[in-house]
């Protein structure tokens, strides 16, 4: 028999975390999320996102042991932006068992129906601005930092429950040692009359988070499923990333002093914590920080690259994006990294995909957003 228990306080988080180990702990390509980070992000009312929205998490138990988990949310910003009557689900993990999957989604569907929602999309952990999508291609490769990893049966289970594909998002990965992008961009800028007016700078200082958030919200506003990030949430996410992110790896592109583009790059934390079992105590913190700050990771990830909407399709916008990526390639190589993944990108975002493919990089992973009626 499957028992579903709501997560109501921090003391419930450990079982929620262990459900992921039950489902995927045997897979060498799966990196358990840090229990510390899950405590920060999933404890009820603990984050700006949770306080602004109506969400609930559950853990499934069998014989007293956690075997699955799910989160459902009525995201008010999403509804205000899209007006589609959709709730979201995420933080999904479960063993390959009919009863477990049915019980988890029965709880999530009931929660969303009670709040007047008519559709459900996901997975989002916890929104489109966090970890999103279910891995449907790239199962033979380890997941990178803050990307979803899932065995193939997860997709089959969702489809069995009536979900259908809504949107694919993609990741491209390339060999940094083979890239000549910095040299090509440097030659193009040398021939371009407007080059002196385009400058790059590290996103540091008291106004940096607000500037990044402003460019991000503007640049992504027309994208499929986009939801604006509040400044409170942006500051929370920046604080969460601060221990692992080199100071000059988030970069703003200015055109004549106006911020028009942004790129964020991060070391692959999963490579630094793979052997820690999701725990930082008692010595995990030291090991993780040594690997991130001193030895470096062989792979890095670019989760954010883009320009303001008004500069899309212009030479200035294209040069800003190319300069940001070329700068990232140089910094990653100097840090000793060998591989760079850019993810996520919408599968129809040809401008960014073509830029990244020219790094060169090739399609390595696909994550899928699913939907169904309630």
3D architecture notes:
- By secondary structure, the chain is an alpha+beta fold.
- It has 2 domains: 2-171, Aminopeptidase (3-Layer(aba) Sandwich), CATH 3.40.630.30; 174-364, Gcn5-related N-acetyltransferase (GNAT) (Aminopeptidase).
- It has 13 helices and 15 strands.
- The strands form 2 sheets. Strands 1, 2, 3, 4, 5, 8, 9, 10, 11, 12, 13, 14 and 15 form a 13-stranded mixed sheet that branches. The protein has a two-stranded antiparallel sheet with strand order 6-7.
- A hairpin with a 2-residue loop joins strand 2 and strand 3 (65-74).
- The model has no long low-confidence stretch (mean pLDDT 94).
CATH superfamily of the largest domain: Gcn5-related N-acetyltransferase (GNAT)
Low-confidence segments, given as residue ranges, are none
Query: How many DSSP helices?
Result: 13
Structural class: alpha+beta
What CATH architecture of the largest domain would you give? Answer: 3-Layer(aba) Sandwich
Helix and strand element order: EHHHEEHEHEEEEHEHEHHEEHHEHEHE
Mean pLDDT comes to: 94
Shape: globular
Biggest pleated-sheet summary: 13 strands, mixed
What is the number of strand segments?
A: 15
According to CATH, the fold-level topology of the largest domain is Aminopeptidase
What is the level 1 CATH name of the largest domain? Alpha Beta
The total domain count is: 2
Q: C-alpha Rg, in Å?
A: 21 Å
Roughly how many Å apart are the termini? 25 Å
User: How much strand content do the residues show?
Assistant: 25-35%
Helix content: 25-40%
